[in-house]
């Protein structure tokens, strides 16, 4: 696919270059020296949220009137991409930017009270938000959510459980999907639940294969009473809200997958040029060069497709089909890249001291979060009329 000059400039303006430099400098100074420690501890410090906010990284895609920097989704995608390219990880992004899935519904609702109480503090790095949709009884089946919210006077009383919730152990508030109506997609609502509310508990912190520095939790709601004013949008309207915001989440994961692939490629190129076997560098072997040439081609194609889809999505096009395709394709390319990186690194690629080992583990989440590869294929199949 040939990109026009206008399209290329959208990713290479002076503002984009400045954002990349900002993200790169922040990552090398505030993240890379500590990432191994955070991986072992299973969480990032709250202070990092404040530092990222002060640097202007948390609200790049949010309007200034809501506490952001006034940019768009392309700006945020650029930041996420550059963090990984500079030595960060998708797990770090999951933890530091969990407000990116916890607050968009709040901001989109236009509810200034909720924005001021929850979205602004999250963008300032003083509060941590989480999004709770997945339940023990099901993952991607949003229409069959079982956690209930019963109206009682001026409050809702919430009962149920949520599973695999990013930032769940550190969150100050949880944007929670609940059932307020009849069965099916038409009976779902979103409510903001402060985590200091009586009856709300973190049932357990979960141990994972990857994204080790991103805390993940199971949450329990036992007669949790929250004001009805914490309802996001109209009652029983959440299915559409969730579906709309899923597109942004899927694009984010696609960009993270492509960036992870590129980072692994860059690290592997450095390695094969310096690593000698039987008297010559690995890069002098045709089989190695050709494998990397194929990988570079796949990464470039995936990046081009992701950027094209992102531009059209920001311009207001629906892009459900293309977003699903972009995510699946990016994940597939990333899987190939992390496998090649570990394989060509040899023994060191299996060691925790190796960056590619972390990317290898983290990559497994990308095909699950935001809708599994299989769910994406179901969406693609239906939209193709199959």
In terms of topology, how is this protein built?
Layout: H1 5-9, H2 14-31, H3 35-41, H4 46-54, H5 73-85, H6 90-96, H7 99-102, H8 104-109, H9 112-123, E1 129-132, E2 148-152, E3 155-166, E4 173-179, E5 188-194, E6 200-205, E7 216-227, E8 231-232, H10 238-274, E9 276-277, E10 280-281, H11 286-314, H12 320-345, H13 355-366, H14 373-383
Family: Belongs to the acyl-CoA dehydrogenase family.
Organism: Rhodococcus coprophilus
Domain Acyl-CoA dehydrogenase/oxidase N-terminal: 13-125
Keywords:
386 residues, four-stranded mixed beta sheet, disordered N terminus, 14 helices, Acyl-CoA_dehydrogenase, Butyryl-Coa Dehydrogenase, subunit A, domain 1, Butyryl-CoA Dehydrogenase, subunit A, domain 3, four-stranded antiparallel beta sheet, alpha+beta
Report on the architecture of this protein:
This protein has helices at residues 5-9, 14-31, 35-41, 46-54, 73-85, 90-96, 99-102, 104-109, 112-123, 238-274, 286-314, 320-345, 355-366, 373-383, and strands at 129-132, 148-152, 155-166, 173-179, 188-194, 200-205, 216-227, 231-232, 276-277, 280-281. It has 386 residues and is an alpha+beta fold. It has three domains: 5-123, Butyryl-Coa Dehydrogenase, subunit A, domain 1 (Orthogonal Bundle), CATH 1.10.540; 129-237, Butyryl-CoA Dehydrogenase, subunit A, domain 2; 240-383, Butyryl-CoA Dehydrogenase, subunit A, domain 3 (Up-down Bundle), CATH 1.20.140.10. The strands form three sheets. Strands 1-4-5-8 form a four-stranded mixed sheet. A hairpin with a 2-residue loop joins strand 2 (148-152) and strand 3 (155-166).
């Amino acid at each position: 696919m040939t990109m026009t000059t206008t399209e290329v400039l959208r990713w290479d303006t002076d503002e984009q270059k400045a954002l990349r430099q900002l993200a790169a400098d922040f990552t090398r100074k505030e993240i890379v020296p500590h990432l191994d420690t955070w991986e072992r501890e299973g969480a990032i410090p709250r202070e990092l949220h404040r530092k990222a906010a002060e640097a202007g990284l948390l609200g790049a895609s949010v309007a200034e009137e809501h506490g952001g920097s006034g940019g768009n989704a392309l700006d945020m995608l650029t930041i996420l991409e550059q963090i990984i390219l500079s030595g960060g990880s998708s797990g770090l992004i999951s933890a530091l930017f969990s407000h990116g899935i916890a607050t968009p519904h709040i901001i989109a609702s236009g509810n200034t009270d909720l924005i001021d109480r929850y979205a602004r503090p999250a963008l300032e790095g003083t509060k941590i938000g989480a999004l709770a949709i997945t339940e023990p009884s099901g993952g991607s089946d949003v229409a069959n959510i079982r956690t209930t919210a019963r109206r009682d006077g001026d409050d809702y009383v919430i009962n149920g459980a949520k599973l695999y919730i990013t930032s769940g152990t550190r969150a100050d508030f949880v944007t929670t999907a609940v059932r307020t109506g009849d069965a099916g997609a038409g009976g779902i609502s979103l409510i903001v639940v402060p985590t200091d509310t009586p009856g709300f508990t973190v049932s357990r912190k979960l141990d994972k294969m990857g994204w080790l520095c991103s805390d993940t939790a199971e949450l329990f709601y036992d007669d949790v009473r929250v004001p009805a004013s914490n309802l996001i949008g109209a009652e029983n309207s959440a299915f559409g809200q969730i579906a709309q915001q899923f597109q942004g989440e899927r694009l984010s994961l696609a960009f993270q997958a492509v960036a992870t692939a590129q980072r692994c490629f860059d690290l592997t190129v450095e390695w094969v040029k310096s690593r000698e076997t039987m008297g010559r560098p690995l890069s002098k072997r045709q089989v190695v060069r050709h494998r990397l040439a194929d990988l570079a081609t796949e990464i470039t194609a995936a990046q081009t497709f992701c950027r094209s889809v992102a531009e059209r999505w920001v311009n207001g096009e629906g892009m459900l089909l293309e977003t699903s395709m972009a995510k699946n394709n990016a994940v597939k390319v990333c899987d190939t890249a992390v496998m090649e990186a570990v394989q060509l690194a040899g023994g060191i690629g299996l060691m925790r001291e190796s960056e590619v080992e972390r990317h290898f583990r983290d990559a497994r989440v990308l095909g699950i979060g935001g809708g599994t590869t299989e769910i994406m294929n179901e969406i693609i199949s239906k939209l193709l009329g199959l």
